[in-house]
Write a structure and sequence with these properties.
The chain is an alpha+beta fold. The chain contains 3 helices and 8 strands, in the order βααβββββββα. Strand 5 and strand 6 form a beta hairpin. The two termini are 14 Å apart. A 5-stranded antiparallel beta sheet has the order 1-4-5-6-3. It has a 3-stranded antiparallel beta sheet with strand order 2-7-8. The radius of gyration is 16 Å and the shape is globular.
Length: 143
């Protein structure tokens, strides 16, 4: 059975605005952290190695802010694959508070790219079969 990648994050002072709630760009940084942790911990493809010759940029992002998250709360962040293409993945994500209420949800599309040695050009590069197999363990269509 396929499953989402799950991490928890405590809301800290650095995440919040004057009202004590998460400032919206910090949510996007938390999402990027979740993607980076997923690649390193679950897919065995850490960004420190990917970025030597490749990249995995975000090419589309849809976000809905559902509920404020406050300093001191612990969020459960979930990420899963909705659609797996040859060189791209469309992922769903959801951040929930300690009562299971959704604070943030949406979809992000990532593309596997090759970067030239001079770093002047990038182009989409299909995932290898091993990577597709790892990614497919997180495939939960229509979630």
């Amino acid at each position: 059975m396929n499953h989402p990648f799950i991490k928890q994050e405590k809301i800290r002072f650095k995440h919040v605005d004057y009202a004590g709630i998460v400032f919206y760009p910090r949510f996007l940084e938390m999402l990027n952290d979740l993607v980076e942790d997923w690649f390193e911990e679950a897919l065995d493809r850490p960004f420190s190695k990917i970025h030597e010759t490749n990249g995995i940029p975000t090419v589309d992002l849809k976000v809905q802010f559902k509920k404020a998250a406050r300093i001191g709360e612990v969020l459960t962040k979930k990420l899963w694959v909705v659609k797996l293409g040859s060189a791209s993945i469309n992922c769903g994500f959801r951040f929930e508070d300690e009562q299971g209420k959704t604070c943030l949800e949406g979809e992000v599309t990532l593309v596997n790219v090759a970067i030239t040695a001079n770093r002047n050009d990038i182009k989409a590069e299909p995932f290898g079969e091993n990577m597709k197999e790892k990614l497919s363990q997180f495939l939960i269509p229509n979630s």
